[in-house]
């Protein structure tokens, strides 16, 4: 399953224009699976990206609008779209000109995948 | 503030043969949708339009209208540079 | 000079079609002007929105030196929040989930443009 999953993640970069990096991490920023383009800063893999999202997502869930689902941050040159796929975090880094709507759709598509990864993780913990 | 978008959608959906209409912005986010169109398809619809546009690069030609025919529906999609309009008939 | 009453009038224009609150915040996260169903909600929105903004702003600076945060979209189960800058302040719109993200962003951008000019003039004046 690992190989199929990695292939699927790698294909995402070619499927969506401007998508530079896809990572699925746990709440501490530990990377469970990633696909990163050559022309993006390796800093997208730093745990800080996930840990800060975790904190912010918790705060956003206190706005009185129920749970936070996703956050889109638009910068001049790039955009980061992150999803609360509890217990995991999915991060997409793309050019600012990338289709944000498509990236948000992708997040929903990836929820099924992250659910599989999360349950595989918890099974492993039980066995250990 | 949204009245302009709403009135465009309203006037389009009034037509008998129009079953659904959607307008997306340049980020693929839904500006409005009426009828049978799912607002969540804004990203996908605008991606179709931008990809079709890239097939021919001539700035002097009007952006292409993409026509998707299914057994029950015809979907027309066009991007004018800033917005993408989709009409489901 | 933009009178406080005039600012509220401008903010009020956005609170149609499902937009629950419009807020203008200073750099410390205090609401300078707002339209909201309740004062308490406004303070909560203000505090959280400015926290989220400064966190992502820092994130972005770590990721890419010269790039600036331009816009934030926060998607929650029961509503969405849009945040952008106006001069050295933050503009925040809180909307019900039925308000599509595209229109929420468009309204926020339009409001920001509308408010930007008088505030820029004010800032320039106070600096001289």
UniProtKB/TrEMBL annotation, chain A:
Official protein name in the record: Ragulator complex protein LAMTOR3-B
One GO location term (cellular component): Ragulator complex
Q: Which family does it belong to?
A: Belongs to the LAMTOR3 family.
Which stretches are annotated as coiled coil? none
Q: Tell me the domain of life.
A: Eukaryota
Q: Name one GO biological process term.
A: cellular response to amino acid stimulus
Name the SUPFAM superfamilies on file: Roadblock/LC7 domain
For this protein, the record's InterPro entries field holds:
LAMTOR3
From TrEMBL, chain B:
* GO BP annotations listed: cellular response to amino acid stimulus; negative regulation of apoptotic process; positive regulation of TORC1 signaling
- A cellular-component GO term for this protein: Ragulator complex
**What is a GO molecular function of this protein?**
guanyl-nucleotide exchange factor activity
State if Ribonucleoprotein is listed as a keyword. no
Q: Which domain of life is it from?
A: Eukaryota
Q: What is its main location?
A: cytoplasm
What does the UniProt keyword field contain?
Cytoplasm, Lysosome
Q: Which InterPro entries match?
A: LAMTOR5
Q: Name one Pfam family in it.
A: LAMTOR5
Q: Which Gene3D superfamilies match?
A: Dynein light chain 2a, cytoplasmic
Subcellular localization is given as:
Cytoplasm; Lysosome
The text of the family note is: Belongs to the LAMTOR5 family.
Q: Which PANTHER family match?
A: RAGULATOR COMPLEX PROTEIN LAMTOR5
Name of this chain's protein: Late endosomal/lysosomal adaptor and MAPK and MTOR activator 5
From TrEMBL, chain C:
Record-annotated Roadblock/LAMTOR2 domain positions: 7-95
> InterPro entries, alphabetically?
LAMTOR2-like (IPR037587), Roadblock/LAMTOR2_dom (IPR004942)
Q: Which domain of life is it from?
A: Eukaryota
* Entry GO CC: cytoplasm
| Matches recorded under Pfam families | Robl_LC7
SMART domains per record? Robl_LC7
Molecular function terms in GO for this entry?
guanyl-nucleotide exchange factor activity; molecular adaptor activity
Q: What family is it from? A: Belongs to the GAMAD family.
Name it: Roadblock/LAMTOR2 domain-containing protein
